[in-house]
Amino acid sequence: MSDTMKKLWENPANPELEVAFQSAESANVCTAGTRELTPEEIAFHMSRAEEYKALLKERLPEARYLHSLNVADCARKLAELNGVDPDKAWLAGLFHDCMKNLPWDEQEKYMTQLGDKLPDHVLNTPKLWHAPAGAAYMRDEIGILDADMIRAIKYHTTGRPNMSPLEKVLYVADYVSIERDYPGVERVREAAFRNLDEAILIGGRFTLISLLERYRVVNYDTFAMYNEAASELGAAYEELSNKQL
After folding, report:
1. Rounded mean pLDDT of 27-46?
2. What percent of the chain has pLDDT over 90?
3. Is residue 220 a part of any domain in this protein?
4. Is residue 243 part of a domain?
5. Which of 16, 39, 50, 116 is most buried, most CB within 10 Å of its CB?
């Protein structure tokens, strides 16, 4: 454990938080022993923001570190617009890629440690490992036991149907953070600040097209997420597109 990490475990804000930290070590499924963070616990973790940044700066390349900061800031803005706790969104954004550039064996270790049974198309696609691995790292090493935050990180790459508002915030923030410059990003970015589901519909379409054009495996959760958004908004977008022709 690094010196930075050791500091994070010292002097908990209150005895209840200390118990929460201890229980993280024995949690053997994604949300076992988890609960919604109290305002005091959120304040405790936010008070460690600079230490968390230092930890990530040690773990990640500069570009990935800056991306993490940008996603955290974007997630906060989207959270404020959508009635989501902005501090939770910021913390989830900060840690969402904490395992991204770690060796495959370490990613696999934490992915397995998460405790959830993952589908074969995740297990067989190493580029997806960092998301469940990051969820386990935040839960077990940092001691953030909020189930919604854990799921937000677990699904930030693939998405899933029936996402919570926080999950949607992180999924979209990762798509539209300020340094993103893929073709069409401005359209997704504009939608993000109008309607998260609209951004999911447009962004999900970009993801699916990109994967299909490259003959890549498509995660079932991504299909289901897109279908959910399309069932709610697709007809309206088709009508709008026809009017613009």
Report:
1. 77
2. 68
3. no
4. no
5. 116
Is 231 a domain residue?
no
Residue 3 is encoded by which pair of tokens? Answer: 């010196």
Q: Which two tokens stand for residue 21?
A: 């930290």
Report the pLDDT averaged over residues 168-174. 98
Q: Could you tell me what percentage of the chain is helix, strand and coil, using 3-state DSSP and rounding each to the nearest 5?
A: 70, 0, 30
H or E segment and range at residue 20: helix 15-26
pLDDT tens-digit profile of 109-125?
A: 999 999 988 888 888 89
Q: Identify the helix (H) or strand (E) that includes residue 224.
A: helix 220-244
CA distances from 46 to 8, 40, 134, 223 (A): 11, 10, 18, 35
Going by pLDDT thresholds of 50, 70 and 90, the confidence category of residue 76 is very high
Q: Find tokens 């049974």 and name the residue.
A: 117
Instruction: Identify whether 176 is part of a domain.
Output: yes
Per-residue confidence (pLDDT) for residue 239, from 0 to 100: 63
Domain extent, residue 98, equals: 3-181
Q: Give the mean pLDDT of 89-111.
A: 97
- Residue corresponding to tokens 């005091």: 40
Judge whether 78 and 176 are in contact, CB under 8 Å: no
204 near 225, Cβ under 8 Å? yes
Is the Cα torsion angle 42, 47, 53, 55 positive or negative in sign? negative
Q: How many domains does the chain have?
A: 1
